[in-house]
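FAQ

Q: What does a record look like?
A: Structure on top, sequence underneath. For example:
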């Protein structure tokens, strides 16, 4: 992979992460609000992990696989 392609991919992934986290911001706020009402910090951590990180991890994996250097 060339430096230019690697740089472009890094820029795309950065923008993608930013956009995805903006989309999730209201959902994250609701999870925290709901969890704080129940005073369960474990619920916050579990919900946020399930809501954001796993989804983001799967989407990023898809981006990286679809843009692999072996693809013509």
């Amino acid at each position: 992979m060339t430096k230019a392609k690697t740089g472009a991919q890094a820029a795309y992934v950065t923008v993608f992460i930013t956009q995805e986290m903006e989309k999730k911001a209201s959902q994250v706020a609701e999870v925290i609000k709901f969890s704080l009402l129940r005073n369960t910090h474990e619920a916050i951590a579990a919900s946020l992990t399930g809501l954001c990180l796993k989804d983001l991890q799967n989407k990023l994996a898809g981006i990286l696989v679809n843009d692999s250097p072996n693809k013509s």
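Q: Is there anything notable about this one?
A: The radius of gyration is 16 Å.
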